[in-house]
Amino acid sequence: MDERINKIKEVLVRKGVSQKDLAAQLDKNVHTVSNWCINKSQPHLKELRRIADLLDVEICELLYSNKEK
């Protein structure tokens, strides 16, 4: 998948949270979170909501707008 859909990596950097820390909080494999961060795969919507809650951001901050292209 070459299209960037999520901004999880950008938000993690902004918040000072590592992929490893997020994976632990979500009880996910670090490889899974890494794939989300490079947009190789995408989290389920329920997981996206949980990520937003953990990072204290709105879900829309984790996603690229289709108008940003």
Task: Describe the protein.
It is built from 4 helices and no strands. By secondary structure, the protein is mainly α. Helix 2 packs across helix 3. The mean pLDDT is 94.
Shape: globular
Largest beta-sheet characterization: none
Report the sheet-strand fraction.
under 5%
Low-confidence spans: none
**What is the average of the pLDDT values?**
94
Query: How far from one another are the termini?
Result: 15 Å
Estimated structural class: mainly alpha
Rg, alpha carbons: 11 Å
Helix/strand order: HHHH
Helical proportion, percent range: 40-55%
Count all strands and give the number: 0
Tally the helices.
Answer: 4
How is the topology of this model organized?
Blueprint: H1 8-15, H2 19-26, H3 30-37, H4 45-55
Helix pairs in contact: 2-3
Features:
single chain, 69 residues, mainly alpha, globular
In short:
The protein has helices at 8-15, 19-26, 30-37, 45-55. With 69 residues, it is mainly α. The mean pLDDT is 94.
